[in-house]
Design brief:
mainly alpha, 6 helices
């Protein structure tokens, strides 16, 4: 590795920015060509609020685990330790899973199907531009410890 290069994963963008871009693009698409609406407000709230709440709780739990371990949450900063506690026992990407739940909940609450339709593109950008780069970085940084962790814990669920 180049000594002058920062010790980070080299992600394409902060993950919240990727989700915000998908949300903004979906809202703009809905202005340009409105999509059909969901059948009832009660259904939207019953689906959207629990997803949003679950996502926020998962992101908060993961951030707490990272802070307790002494490593930064943003993937644009160097990882200090490999976090394997808290929600990281069940998924290697609890922050991104939580953000996905939040995004889906917001899309339902706003009743914007275009936002939902763009979620696969957001997840593809996240996978290629963030997750894959983080995985390479963590393997380089933590070696066999990360490989063992990766074998025992699913990427998403």
């Amino acid at each position: 590795m180049d000594e002058a290069a920062p010790d980070t994963a080299g992600v394409i963008a902060p993950p919240p920015l990727l989700f915000a871009a998908g949300l903004a693009a979906g809202l703009l698409a809905d202005v340009a060509k409105p999509a059909p609406r969901l059948p009832s407000a009660a259904w939207r709230v019953a689906g959207g609020l629990p997803l949003l709440a679950a996502g926020l709780l998962l992101v908060g739990w993961a951030a707490h685990a990272m802070h307790r371990a002494g490593t930064p949450v943003p993937p644009t900063r160097a990882s200090v330790v490999l976090v394997v506690e808290g929600p990281f026992r069940f998924t290697r990407n609890p922050v991104y899973l939580g953000m996905t739940l939040c995004y889906t909940g917001v899309a339902l609450l706003l009743d914007r199907l275009w936002v939902l339709a763009l979620l696969p593109g957001v997840l593809a950008a996240l996978q290629r531009g963030v997750v894959a780069r983080e995985e390479r970085y963590l393997e380089r940084r933590f070696g066999e410890a990360y490989r063992r962790y990766r074998r025992g814990v699913a990427r998403w669920l």
